[in-house]
């Protein structure tokens, strides 16, 4: 399965989550329900900065998918890594 093509240092974690969800659901980001219906994208972006602790971990449900974002930049959807820095 292909990973997201975003650059961790130039793209926000919320954009990377959307790309990972699109990859996991085999759809385009524009076809997804807005991320803000599930989680505050700005809060995610503030929490996950390039210098954030690797110990940070946020898990949330997006539709039928379970999303986990880790401080090391890894994004997992339903237990499968879809993006990592």
UniProtKB/TrEMBL annotation:
InterPro entries assigned: HalOD1
Cross-referenced Pfam families: HalOD1
Domain Halobacterial output residue range list: 10-78
Protein name, UniProt field: Halobacterial output domain-containing protein
Organism: Natrinema hispanicum
